[in-house]
Amino acid sequence: MTPIFLSNKIPWFGNHTGYQQLPRYMQKLAPETKVIAAKHSFRDRMLGKAYSLYRGWSERNQFDAAAELRFLRANSVPTPIKHILHFEDHFMFFDQWPKAPRDFVATLHIPRDQWTEGELRGLKHLSSAIVLYQRDIEFYEEHVGKDRVKFILHGVDVDFFRPRPAAPQRNKMLFSGHYLRNTAMFSRVVRRLAQKHRDLEFHLLVPERFRDLDGFAELKDHPQVKWRQNLGDDELCQLICSSWLVLLPMSDSGANTAVVESFACGTPVVTTDVGGIRDYGGGSLFPLVDDDDDDAMFDLVEQYLDRPGWRNQIGAACRDFAVKKLAWPVVARQHLETYDALAN
Asked: What whole-number distance in Å separates Cα of residue 30 and Cα of residue 220?
């Protein structure tokens, strides 16, 4: 089957980051693959407004609505399957059917406790879904249908995100992102580590508009904290590779882009045992700690600092896992196989 994708660009993601990389690799397997995305033009704003009025949507992103209309009408490939990469941005699209045709597929990203009532209503109209972690499959099947939800790991560009020649710096720790991060726990652990290790640097890659999350106020002017944002692709990869650890306590998760990119770079991740992290080697490739267990996270970081050989072994194992299981060519092939299963 030949996919037609409806894709969304996450503003702070670069050219090698995120699930929207899938179409680029799919085009190598199925050259007639098409990608439809929002166009921020006057024409699309008017088209989206007209389409929203027709569908009875009082509040809608008009550029997304226009993209959905173009996606709905796209049929210029043989045996098409239509795949919405981020269901949560387009859940209203499916209300035109009691149950959407099976050849309309959507990927579900957010954990079950994060769904709004509107998104859950949209989920009931879906007939075919892909998820990037296994924990909530039974929950999704209650809405979508038995055996209509398929699991595929989140991919990563292992050719770009790869270990770099310069050695990682033992005194450099990285935190990345904002969504579902346990920032209060992170702040507490960082302040304990900083008090004991005056040479440690904590690099926080957080867009400025998200720096009011719990715990960040205590780190705002901390002398060992460096705030980062708006990095280019090479800068991001260099930052991950030069870090000794990625400190990433989570309150919940599905798949996590920061985690898979860290794996690909061979940088160990210190995180919590929540959501889908065990699908990505948590507890087997690398140790986990319980959510809000500050002592356990502090002690685990201490082990990584005291045992550089062990740290490097875990980093190498995570890199190997990324190359064998998460590389986009591998993941794209799994999507093609899954399309056949879902469309029938």
From this structure: 48
What distance in Å separates the CA atoms of residue 58 and residue 326, rounded to the nearest whole number?
40
28-55 confidence digits (pLDDT tens):
999 999 999 999 999 999 999 999 999 9
* pTM: predicted TM-score of the whole model, two decimal places: 0.94
Please count the structural domains in the chain: 2
Q: What are phi and psi of 277, to 5 degrees?
A: -65, -30
Cα dihedral value 9, 4, 107, 118, nearest 10: 80
pLDDT digits (tens, 9 = 90+) for 55-97: 999 888 999 999 999 999 987 777 789 999 999 999 999 999 9
In this structure, the answer to whether residues 8 and 88 fall within a common structural domain is yes
d(CA 337, CA 86): 19
Residues 109 and 28 in one domain: yes
DSSP-assigned letter for residue 153? P
Which residue range forms the structural domain that includes residue 333? 2-155+327-343
Alpha helix locations (H) across 30-175?
Answer: 42-55, 62-73, 117-123, 137-144
